[in-house]
Amino acid sequence: MRLSVRLMLAMTALVLCTVAALGLLSYANIGHAMVPAGIQRLADQTKARIGGIDALLSTVRNETLAARTFPSHQRIQRAQASGGIDPQDGLAEESARRTLAEIYAGQMTAKPGILRYRYIGVADGGRELVRVDRNTSDRSPRIVSAAELRRLGHEEFFRRGIALAEREVEMTWTRGDPADATTAAPVVIFATPVRTAANEPFGLIVLEVDMRPTFERIRAALSEDTRSYIVDGDGPYLANLREGRIVPTYAAGRWQDDFPALAAALGNKNGAAAVLTAPDGLRVAAVIGLVRFPNGMRAGVIETIAFDTIMAPAKALQSASLIVALVAGLVAVLVSVLLSRSLARPVVQLTAAVEQFAHTGQIAVPRGLSGETLRLATAFEHMTSEIDSATEALRAKSEQLDKIIASMADAVAVIDGNGNRVFANPRCLALFGEAAEIGSDQWSSKYKRFKADGVTPMPDDDSPSSRARRGESFDNVDLGIRQGDDAPLIQLVASARPIENPDGSFGGAVIVYRDITALKEAERQLRQAQKMQAIGQLTGGVAHDLNNILTVLTGGIEILTEGVSDRPALKEVALMVDQAVARASDLTNGLLSFARKQPLQPRSIDVNALMEETARLLRSTFSGTIEIDFRPAPGLWPALADPSQLSSALLNLAINARDAMPGGGRLLLETANVNLDKVYAEQHDEVTPGCYVVLVITDTGTGIPASIRDRVFEPFFTTKAVGEGTGLGLSMVYGFVKQSGGHIEIHSQEGTGTAIRLYLPSASAQGSAATVPAPAAQGGREAILVVEDDVLVRSYVLTDLAALGYTTHAAASAAQAMAMVYDEIEFDLLFTDVMLGGAINGAQLADELRKYRPHLKVLFTSGYGDRVLEQQSVGAQGAPLLEKPYRRADLARMLRLALDGPVGRNSRS
Ligand SMILES: Nc1ncnc2c1ncn2[C@@H]1O[C@H](COP(=O)(O)OP(=O)(O)OP(=O)(O)O)[C@@H](O)[C@H]1O
Ligand SMILES: [Mg+2]
Questions:
Q1: pLDDT value at position 119?
Q2: Pocket lining: 43 vs ligand 1, CB cutoff 6 Å
Q3: Does residue 656 have its Cβ closer than 6 Å to ligand 1?
Q4: 831 and 746: one domain?
Q5: 184 DSSP assignment
Q6: Which of 210, 463, 625, 845 has the fewest CB neighbours in a 10 Å radius?
Q7: How far is the CA of 155 from the centre of ligand 2 (A)?
Q8: How far is the CA of 729 from the centre of ligand 2 (A)?
Q9: Is the distance from the beta carbon of residue 727 to the nearest atom of ligand 1 less than 6 Å?
Q10: Do 632 and 766 reside in the same domain of the chain?
Q11: Which sequence positions carry the modification called 4-aspartylphosphate (predicted)?
């Protein structure tokens, strides 16, 4: 509701309330004054009426007493006492009676209210002596004849009257004589005794007075609203004047029963008033006035007046007040409309300005304001601009905070005091999902939690969310979570801080989770790589020395075998030794292969064709329970690798797969082109981004348990029984792939199978190296400078070279060789070990000597096929390389290749 309307209503209501209150108050006051006044008026009337009755009856009473003095009473008495004749005047009783009757009649003529006049004697059962009544047509007095006189000794009034003392009067209400039509009216009987000289009762003077005229006068004077009853003080009604029932309602009921409140108020008094409900249900004010006569008779007048009549003036005032209130109300409405408008206008303007501010953020002080409203508006304007700048600062700060938290790499969750999540940043949602309610039961059941090792289950109570809910503060608690048994393990570190409410109670907590899965994986890979490198170095060193020994053994055995060719038993032994050496040589090759130090001859290979061939070979050798499937990728790039080594790697993997499927299964060979990007390269050790050809060998075998997955590449690690596996298969594959610049991955699940992926660099980018057919082994006459630090090998080589017809010079180190060259010895070819003890290696020696002999021909030999060295030094020079251990035929062939070929031509054995 609008302010002006409210003001208007309030003012109008105020005025109306005031007028109404005043009206009510004056009505009540006037009412209070009216009632007593009305009652008083009524009481005064009543008093006057009862006064009239009293006056009449008292007069008649006095007259009754006065009648005793009539001499005829004594004359009758005397006549009776003297036998019928009064001794004093000598007249008969009869005469005295007549005289008395005439006196009575005279009295009655003078007083029309007297209905009957009698003198009743005690003698003869209370026989009337004289009676005058009005039993005539004109109601004139009539003296009743002697014959009509009656005995009345039994009458109540007679018995009571005759018992009275001298000068006492008995008064009684009566209805008159029903037998006498003239007396059928409310009547008062007056009786007083006449006594003899001896104070014996002789007779009773009896007067009967008709009260009707008196009552009639009262009735005539009654006002419209007044009712009037004449009552016997003892109870019965005598007349109901309002209804005109002047003729007795006598014995029709007792007034005390009809007006009990009045009777109670009266008590022993002569007058009383009360407000009560009349027998007819009307609310009235009632007054009683009473008069008592000496012998006990009481006469009463009860007058009632309707309460409404008394209150009429107050009612009139009430109506007047109503009209005044109405007029006042109207005036109030008018005034309040004007007033409220002028009062509300500034407030309305201010309100509009504030509303405008709420919608547009702009505020303008309304024109036309003055006083407090102007000050208020100006203050408000000032306040809004302050709030604006404060809000803006807050908003900027909160936005900045939001951005910081949203862009955090860590997951941030905030829980409230009940453990419900109240905030989660995007990283948190990404990690735990939208639906995850941290701290809730749903959250607890959604994840399995593990301790730092990723295997030991973490009790619910120890979880970071539970601890945070208990208000604990902690840092860097390691845990792993898994959403299901097959889901990957996510490794996290969690920290939490409780948040306190202003009253110091626990209000929630901030939990920060950092995903360290990648970090842990990188750590694992690094450890693995370091381990493999360490093993590789160890293995490489051992294999190198073994190779030198084996070279000597191989050559020595050949010479021995030739030497004992005529002694079969010894030749047999020599052959056995030769075989053993050959096996040792294989083993050393395996080790070298793992140590990535095996001499490789990489070239561009059609991997699909090679795989096809392998698959065919496997189908013919593996038992029928293993199904072999090959799925070549169309348009496969050529790969750069050593084909024979790749074949043996594939065979190794296939054999492993077969061994893992003793009950049969499926072996799937696949190829594909992939591009390993930078991200992948960064995540995996020793991987350079680029194009790769992938070979996937999948089996449905037992799978590799996670616990040994990191160890399968280690040389001599095997789970197979003694004699069934050496544990070199995967090591060789690993070394070969790594040495070829590739990469290997194992995916395995226990009970399901294993997939091994070999990534070989694509040859398309690097160009292919063609293989050179091996020339036939033959000797020669040229001079050879042999540089070999191992004395056993050197002497063996020199023997072999001599056997092939060459002239030889020998040096034990690069320094010694250079000294010989400076001395200008004659030679056609430098045959040098790549790895020489000392500061200068074989390749550097060759470089040095070429300064003097630019066309120097070189053949390198190495048992330490260091890939780096090979590529950087030997490979760069383009000279052929002879791998240790070698047989004389290999030596002869490579020498001829080096001597006959152009300088810088590259080849390998
Ligand atoms: N496809 C595979 N399925 C199940 N386990 C495998 C598989 N390939 C390798 N392994 C496990 O890796 C171990 C090492 O394999 P590796 O080829 O290096 O050695 P080996 O097969 O035991 O012996 P070798 O190959 O020298 O005869 C095996 O003993 C075997 O436990
Ligand atoms: Mg194997």
A1: 93
A2: no
A3: yes
A4: no
A5: -
A6: 625
A7: 162
A8: 4
A9: yes
A10: yes
A11: 833
User: Is the beta carbon of 668 within 6 A of some atom in ligand 1?
Assistant: no
pLDDT tens digits, residue range 222-279?
887 788 888 887 777 777 777 766 555 444 578 888 888 888 888 888 888 888 888 7
Residue-level pLDDT at 495: 96
Q: Quick one: tokens of 540?
A: 């490489």
d(Cα 484, Cα 479) in Å, to the nearest integer? Answer: 15
User: Which range among 145-149, 582-586, 775-779 shows the weakest confidence by mean pLDDT?
Assistant: 775-779
| 298-306 and 226-232 beta bridge pairing | antiparallel
Q: Model confidence at 765, in pLDDT bands (50, 70, 90)? A: low
CB 73 within 8 A of CB 119: yes
Give yes or no for a contact between 689 and 677, defined as CB atoms under 8 angstroms apart: yes
Cβ–ligand 1 contact at 657 (below 6 Å):
yes
Is residue 374 within 8 A of residue 382, CB to CB? The reply is: no
For 37, residues 6+ apart whose C-beta sits below 8 A from its C-beta are 310
Lowest-pLDDT range of 179-193, 288-302, 561-575, 882-896 = 179-193
Cα–Cα distance, 248 to 895 (Å, whole number) = 180
Ligand 1 close to Cβ of residue 754 (< 6 A): yes
Around 650, how many Cα atoms within 13 Å sit in the side-chain half-sphere? 30
Could you tell me how far CA 4 lies from the centroid of its own chain? 41
Residue 606, burial from CB neighbour count under 10 angstroms (0-12, 13-18, 19+): middle
Residue 165's pLDDT band, with cuts at 50, 70 and 90, is confident
Cβ(197)–Cβ(57) under 8 Å? no
For ligand 1, the distance from its centroid to the CA atom of residue 600, given in whole angstroms, is 24
- In this structure, the residue with its CA closest to atom 9 of ligand 1 is 656
Closest ligand to Cα 712? 1
Backbone dihedral region of 476: left (phi > 0), alpha (psi from -120 to 50 degrees) or beta?
left
Do 659 and 702 reside in the same domain of the chain? yes
Q: Which residues of 643-680 are buried (b: 16+ CB within 10 A; e: fewer)?
A: bebbbbbbbbbbebbbbbbeeebebbbbbbbbebeeee
As a whole number of angstroms, the distance between CA 819 and CA 845 comes to: 11
Among 655, 714, 730, say which to mutate for ligand 1: greatest number of ligand atoms within 8 Å of CB: 730
Q: What are phi and psi of 31, to 5 degrees?
A: -55, -45
- Are residues 242 and 187 both part of a single domain? no
- What is the pLDDT at residue 2? 72
Tell me the CA end-to-end span of the chain in Å, nearest whole number: 107
- Are residues 753 and 618 part of one domain? yes
Ligand 2 centroid–CA 515 distance in Å is: 37
Ligand 1, atom nearest to 699 Cα: 1
For residue 391, how far is its CA from the centre of ligand 1 (angstroms)?
Answer: 69
One-letter amino acid at 634 equals P
Q: Which domain holds residue 723?
A: 602-770
Q: Are residues 219 and 143 in the same domain?
A: no
